[in-house]
């Protein structure tokens, strides 16, 4: 019997005298019901399977019999309205009540109202049949026709995704100026090696935004999204360095536009400091404006464009190191701000052919178009307070400063309070959304402001402050929306309860997916209908998401794990997709997961065959790929625009000798494109000495080390800093306060979890899944051909190791790991049974092995049988982990005078190695060939017998310097191949 039924059964027997004495005295019923409800939380009366948890007390405001149809109406308070509502649950509640009422009332219809809304009206449209949908919550037609500002030219069609959808999204707080202390600071405290001002950035910029864009949406961020600290602006009013703006040939009048002006700014709007050029097309050929940047250093740069109001669509063609990429941009909307195109790799310097942006307008058109500025890279903060800027990349700064730099009007959007950047920051985000849309949805001070005419579909604010609960339980996910500010509808008549639908879908998807994947008790908190600035200011369906509690240690275990970040982000993307499909009446398909089991094999002298395997999503049946994109990179250049293929394989021909090629694969369906696979590298040497196979076994992503005792707990990065997906952008520094009872005093002394700040502006490399390139470069320099495959391809027999004289086992920082929660499945194991079987068969046939990695000894399973098995194959035994702190090592052979070091620092170029293995020869048949300089512990072992093995207790790719790394590979290959 459910808790709800027990409650009503008890209430009925105690209430029966009221019915007898007063007949239908509903006020007496209300009083007595509330007496019984005093100890009942809202989650106590929610019987479902979504782990709903809400401590708020339920109360009945009034009870009456409707005069129209004699319906018994129970009016509950706000707490009941915070739970997720589904049709089946309403039926269960009503039936429980009916069966417990006196006979003379049982036949009466029952109506339950919570916070002024009938309970059935709280069911999201997504969970209703088409006939029962609340049409007032759907997208209304007063807004501009659905269209994107930017449309990339793709070789495939996104027919069931988010094409023509525009989403505003931001990542919590940021670096801001606090006049009280005359300093720039974070809005939140540094806890458990991160903080709320930057940890949501990982979700929003690294995962959610790309997922939505891969589904066809345009995503708008009020905070800078590019972590590149360099910025180059090319503009008709002046450009950086040797950058050059080539004006179109036929020009008309000028409009107001961007100019850098004099930086840093205080209250200046740079989009009011300059001009943009208006021009038409020529009769016989394209009229082009060209932007040629002076790139300060090679790397990845986001490209943004700005323009005045035009009369149609133009093409922006980006020339980058991987080729050219075209975007169609509608200049009728999105004018007077920075519009994001994409992120590309550019080489250092000025290159008029291979590093530029062309603005191309339609030939022969009589319409007018606009050329203003193009920006490469995010850059540093340019807003000053009392003569000093924040001193950090704009990427870290609060939205208020980037909104100013992006052209929004001051007193309408970002200058809402006098000398209070803190309030301006959280208030400006919603007003910025309204400015993007424009009349009649404009900023609060002027709803009729024309704005940028971008038809924003929804807004999402991402935070991690879900509150604090007593005990050590998970706090879980809280949703906040608003329907009560000013009016209950948006300017076009759409009900603001669409925001509740959005909140319900996102919260439901997050909680369901987390509990499914992590086998944990992730809590679903309430959905608050409250007047939070970020919830009520946007004039579109909006949600303020509090994913978890960054103050609660059990929640922190999850937020620091890269897979959790991916899974939560995918849940949010799926929920937004479902919401907009319901709002706009289209069928949806979820984009696929990344492919795996990659392999490459030479099929002729200069051709290579690539193959892979799709990955099906166990919790999303629609996410099946039907096509694939294959992207290619040559040398140090970026990737090209890719090639669409029907099957999970392709032959690439005409490879040139002496070059390292990289390939990555994505899966495609009608819902969009997946994240990329690991990168497979191949190369053909001049006068090749033979062929080597690189087996990439380093696919681990993981959170840092977590430890707990009764009195102490925290994040022990010194032991294991984890492995970020791509790059780590959210670490402030090591935790120093591990005492559970330490209390918060202020943000400078936050108690338990308090962490240093020495790393918070450092963006450093994690697992980029691209380390076969470093191995392959050394192999090619030594005169050998090479191909790459994933370790799964070896384990599943897709690759026959016996075809190669040498196998290079790349294990980086791979080691057995487990997800937070109750899932006991091991991930990232090095020595699986299938891999050991493959290596046993390979070495019996005389195959040679190079194995490198920080945990190649540590990860050997501790059972005696497996220890003996691994030792017999690889001829080394494990002595210690964390063998040394510095990365210096040297050769022990008189024939090889070699000294070098591997990376232990935090930087973009190489991931830091914090736990190298000390490994020793198995017996006298093998020998130590490298030792660590710090303590002379054995770092590398050579075996020469019926086959050969070189094992290094540190990752080869972490060795500093291309020359040193290539020399090391050359010497190793001499030992193994000569």
UniProtKB/TrEMBL annotation:
Name of a matching Pfam family: fn3
Fibronectin type-III domain residues: 594-687
Name under which the protein is recorded: Fibronectin type III domain-containing protein
